[in-house]
Amino acid sequence: MNGEATILHADLDSFFASVEQRDDPALRGRPVLVGGGVVVAASYEAKAYGVRTPMGIVEAKSLCPGAVVASPRFEAYSAASKAVFEVFRDTTPLVDPVSIDEAFLEVGGLARLVGSPESIGARLRQRVREEVGLPITVGVARTKFLAKIASAFAKPDGLLVVPVDGERAFLHPLPVERMWGVGAKTGAKLRARGIDRIGDLAAVPPHALAAYVGHAAAYHLHALANGQDPRPVETGRRRRSVGAQRALGRRPRVDHGRAMAEIDSALAGLVDRVARRMRKAEREGRTVTLRLRFDDFTRATRSHTLPRPTARTDRILLVARSLLDVAEPMIRERGCTLVGVAVTGFDADAGVQLELPFGEPDTASLDLALDDVRERFGSAAVLRGSLVRRGEGYAMPTLPD
Question: Is 325 annotated as a binding residue?
Answer without folding.
Answer: no
